[in-house]
Amino acid sequence: MADPSAAAREGAEALALTRELIRRASVTPDDAGCQELMIRHLTPLGFEVERLPFGAVTNFWARRGTDGPLLVFAGHTDVVPAGPLEAWTSPPFEPHLRSGLLYGRGAADMKSSLAAMLVATRRFVTDHPDHRGSIAFLVTSDEEADAVNGTVKVVEHLRERGTTIDWCVVGEPSSSERLGDVIRVGRRGSLNGRLTVHGVQGHVAYPDAASNAIHSVLGALDRLARRTWDAGNASFPPTGFQVSNIAAGTGAANVIPGTLTALFNFRFNTEQTADALRAEVERTLREGGVRFEIAWHLSGAPFLTHPGSLTRAVSDAIRDEVGREPEHSTGGGTSDGRFIAPTGAEVVELGPINASIHKVDEHVAVGDIDVLADMYQRVLENLLVRA
Ligand SMILES: [Zn+2]
Q1: What is the structure's pLDDT at 2?
Q2: pLDDT at site 332
Q3: For the sheet containing 240-248, what is the strand order?
Q4: Same domain, residue pair 177 and 315
Q5: 30 Cα–ligand 1 center, Å
Q6: Structural domain harbouring 323
Q7: What CATH number should be reported for the domain holding residue 213?
Q8: Which of 249, 269, 300 is the last residue of a domain?
Q9: Is 70 exceeded by the pLDDT of residue 4?
Q10: Are 340 and 236 in the same domain?
Q11: Is 282 in the active site?
Q12: In the predicted model, what is the mean pLDDT of the chain?
């Protein structure tokens, strides 16, 4: 931007939009009007908007253009609950500026990204009204909670209609210490199991007439917990297994427990499949003589975006804006990228610093919002300017 006052206005716009979004208390899965605000910005730019509510969840898909390739900005308007209000220095849903930081729930995860995407898109289509391909927004209010009626349903809807996404930039806060130092190019899979162990309740003085549910599963659980599942690979750390909850016993010291329930989770890499992990756990329990059942829930398969046009476009954008070479990471929790990547899309997550997300006094550096908008704009230019 050649005119410095115009640049200041642009910066102010991204900040103002972030503040407006924070003011809408969109505790998951409530959208609280965030998406209508986004839609009001997209419609005048020539986006065709489809509101796609499923259950209590608000989603929309907005697309500008009909041709390929299709670049999608994906994100969520919902935020995690604020927790105890008295712990916050300023009220979580009243955006507050203190020494260059903007405070509020969702400031980093991920309302500043949504604002930056909107500003980047407006600038880009103003400069390049006849850009090649299409730009779309895929926005949900169901990322932080169940993720059942959100992105996964919208992706299903798009597939039924034959819409294929080529590139997807997710606004999750990927950065670690400086904006753009890390982009996520994949995520581990997450597989949950709820184990129920059956024994026979009885008096501790008469163990022969009972079957202790705790004793019966200890050995097998120990083997699972100690096991090395794989060594990881060039893109992923090793697969991990964690028991997160165990419940058994009546509270009385003289009763042998007849049942036990345990919750466990796998974070797994591309060396594994959910089916293989399931089979291995069940085999280990059977071999240990455990009588059990397991309710499985696959919350996401692992995905990996190989180096290609999108990773190049994003890395170049970061280098041009801040002179930084981003680390390509697959760490962190799950994100809605897990639902988009299986369609064959290249998926990269680029967003602000994640140090304060889901915490009290969540914040984002005000200056980073503008730079993030510049980065998103460069991604658009790198991919959709006609040669
Ligand atoms: Zn998020």
Answers
A1: 47
A2: 79
A3: 240-248, 259-268, 189-198, 292-300
A4: yes
A5: 14
A6: 4-187+302-384
A7: 3.30.70.360
A8: 300
A9: no
A10: no
A11: no
A12: 95
Instruction: Work out the average pLDDT over 22-51.
Output: 98
Query: 202 to each of 254, 261, 262, 288, 360, how far by Cα in Å?
Result: 9, 18, 21, 21, 47
Q: Which of the following is catalytic: 10, 143, 349, 370?
A: 143
Residues near 234 by beta carbon (within 8 Å), at least 6 away in sequence: none
CA of 80 to the centre of ligand 1 (A): 9
Instruction: Find the length of the chain.
Output: 387
* Cα-to-centroid distance, 234 and ligand 1 (Å): 26
Structure tokens at 313: 């476009």
Would residue 143 show up in a list of annotated catalytic residues for this protein? yes
Single-letter amino acid, residue 187: R
Of 10, 78, 142, 172, the active-site residue reads 78
- The label of the residue with tokens 């026979």 reads 200
Same structural domain, 20 and 135? yes
Residue 153 CA to its chain's centroid (Å): 15
Separation of 173 CA from ligand 1 center, angstroms? 7
Into how many domains does the chain fold? 2
- Rounded Cα gap, residues 251 and 234, in angstroms: 48
**CATH number for position 36:** 3.40.630.10
